[in-house]
Amino acid sequence: MKRLSALFLVPAFALALSACSGGQDSPEPSATQTPSPSATASTPDPSQAPASETDVVGQWGGATDDSPVLWFNASGTFTGNDGCNSLLGGWEQTGQQIELKNVTMTLIACVGVDDWISKTTTVQVEGDNLLLTNKAGDELGTLPRTKVAG
Fold it and tell me: Percent helix, strand and coil across the chain, each rounded to 5?
């Protein structure tokens, strides 16, 4: 239930944060920057099944309600949850490495929840596991590929 309510808060949180941004690196708003409904979806479209064993598209983790999970969409967006806080952003793949970009995350204080997933800057598909690393290249953990019924 916590995950479901947090996922509803993420789009509102992202909208509020986008209103606060406006630094020199921020592009000017345009009609082409409006997110599509799929950009904020909590799960990928079943028709977006992984094309290969190295494809990041799909669900990783989330075997139980409170376990970390990441969903990657073919549109270059992702959403996730660490068991308490929700996150979303974009991703870009170069070779085997996938960089997470423009990550936004709720900041709910939850006792006993490890926030390791919030430190992730890059991921890499290794068979049926997703390796998560931080900015320094240190391994943070792995998430297993989850088969989502379509």
Answer: 20, 35, 45
CA 43 from centre of chain: 10
Tens-digit pLDDT profile for residues 41-82: 444 444 444 445 569 999 999 998 889 999 999 999 999 999
Going from the C-alpha of 37 to that of each of 13, 16, 40, 43, the distances in angstroms are: 16, 17, 6, 11
Question: Does residue 37 lie within any of the structural domains?
Answer: no
CATH number at residue 97: 2.40.128.270
* Residue 88 forms part of a structural domain: yes
When divided into structural domains, the chain yields a total of 1
Question: Greater confidence, 3 or 62?
Answer: 62
Determine the structural domain holding residue 103 and report its residue range: 2-18+56-146
Does 104 fall in a domain?
yes
Residues with Cβ within 8 Å of residue 56, at least 6 apart in sequence: 50, 72, 91, 93, 98, 123, 125, 130
Q: What is the CA radius of gyration of the chain?
A: 15
